[in-house]
Amino acid sequence: MNKQLTSVFAGILLFIAAITFFSSVYIVDETKQVFVTQFGKIVRGPINGPDKDEAGLYFRLPFIQEVHPFEKRYLEWDGDPNQVTTKDKLFIFIDTYARWRIVDAKLFFEKVRNEAGAQQRLDDILDGESRIVVAANDLVEVIRSRQREAVVDETEVLDDESQLKPFQRGRSALAQEVLDNAGPNLKEEFGIELLDFRFKRINYSQEVRLKIFERMITERARIAMKFRSEGLGEAAKIQGAQQRELKRIASEAYLKQQQIKGKADAKAVDIYAEAFNQSPESREFYEFLKTMETYKNTLSTNVTLILSTDSDFLKYIKQSTPEKE
Amino acid sequence: MVDFPNEIRINPATINKLIVGGVVVLLVGIGVMSSFYKVDPREHAIVLRLGKYTGAPVTDTGLHFKLPFGIDRVTNVEVTTVHKLEFGFVTQTPGVRTSYASRSRSQSEASLIVTGDLNIADVEWSTQYVVSDAYNYLFKVRNAIETFGAMNEAVMREVIGDRTINEVLTSGRSEIQQEVKEKLQELAKQYELGINLDKVILQDVNPPESVKASWNDVNEAQQEYSATINTAQAKYNEVVPKADGEAERTVEEAEGYAVQRVNEAQGDADLFKQVFSAYQKAPEVTRTRIYLETLNEVLATGPRKIIMDTEAKGLLPLLNLNKEGKQ
Fold first, then answer.
1. Which domain holds residue A52?
2. ipTM for the whole predicted complex goes beyond 0.90
3. Are B83 and B72 in contact (CB under 8 A)?
4. Which CATH number do you get for residue B176?
5. Which residue from B143, B208, B247 is facing A249, i.e. has the nearest CB?
6. What are phi and psi of B113, to 5 degrees?
7. Are B53 and B165 found together in one domain?
8. Which of B228, B239, B263, B319 to mutate to test the interface with A (most CBs of A within 10 A)?
9. Residue A46: is its pLDDT beyond 60?
10. Helical H runs in chain A?
11. Threshold 0.80, pTM exceeds
């Protein structure tokens, strides 16, 4: 019995020893930074703070020292969509994000206790700052970033309505301003280092969006109209060119035709003249022949010919020998 | 000791031995079980010894040894697998005919982007990436993927914010993909995400739903523009060459006329010359012959003839012209 009691006692002792051991060591993970408090007072730390490489096994006084771990990694902050009025009186929603980390765990612990508290502070400060910055600038400043010219496709030349809106500062300058305004404050007051702040989404509010859609629709209608009338214009040009071309072709053909004919006629005249105009006799003979030919052609059946008996033809009708005049 | 059913006698020392033995076996078992881990070909393993990184990822595939009882903790990270983030749409069942889930409000919010000319484009895109540095991925940034998603949205908007809606919808697509990829890669490096960008792919890029119809109308107008011009050009092409041909015909005909005219003249002239030279041999008789032959021909077939004596007067009463006309 005595022996049994001893072994039970030994077991309990072992158990207590184990608990004491385990509560006097702690592991600092690669992703954590810690400090140790004793009755609420910081006695050690931060261990494995930012830019330090101190992860591993550590000892503490069991039961009376408390370990407070904090995240060492870069953390994100994602803002809620936030309605802001820009300087040019447009209602927009901005949605932002930031990256931060805890650089002063002690200050962080004292001021905001934990990450949830930190997120809330970040909400307040970053939302506020971005609201101020956006409200002081025109919308285009949060949209544009880089100075560039729009590339207009050759096939789109008619569709050149949309132009990039000019800007001065641009989105990254505005984000930088928020960062500059909020950063030092967060570091000094809360031990939070702000690494980056960016505008994630910028969208028109519902009413503005409908107006934008309406504008886009009318703009499109205008462009469509332009295409159609421009097409008709081009077609008319072609039709005009067609008419001009037809007239040119026809008149040129006429000109050539007349020139050719004229030349031929002139040549014919020359040939006839050369043949008929050899001598007075030939001229007279031609006249005679032509007259005879004309008789054949003109004196047809529907003509009544009244012949005088003293005509050459009928000179024998009264007597067989011609009279001597 | 043999008769179990009748008599159970247990020696306390044996019980102790059994308990101790059991505990030892259990501990050894757990120890052995937690002393091994495996690394897939797709993976790198990160080992933390008492919370501290051992310095290099384990890249050899196969079974590995580690210290048991949670002294070594191992996290496997897929490093060769290409992961995909989708914005503005969700792939429901990937495959040959991939189907997409209908869009939620937050997705359509993610895809509506204000362009540099202050219009709105509906841009869906996906980003493919691999984890290139398991250490950074796990230990530098918490929720690297969420951060990466936010970066994607910010960068895409930045790039589209510098383009007109026309560029976004048509010509600028590949340029946008390239620029977003470069900027994201740069930012991922700066943030030490341990992520390497593979591709940024613009999926559907559209005008917003309610504007689509008017956008299509422009496309139609553009088609009509070409069609109208083509029709006119076709007419032109139909008519003008034909006129050209006709003109050529006119000229050719004139050419023909010319040849004919000259030849006929020449023929007539030659004929006359010959006849004339023959005539000159006996002009009087030839002349009379031609005269009489002609009259013979004319008067034999042709007109009515009235022969009047030279002394006859008053021709008119003889003629009933009206009647003659009616004959």
1. 2-71
2. no
3. no
4. 3.30.479.30
5. B247
6. -130, 135
7. no
8. B228
9. yes
10. 2-24, 105-112, 115-135, 139-143, 171-190, 206-276, 280-298, 315-318
11. no
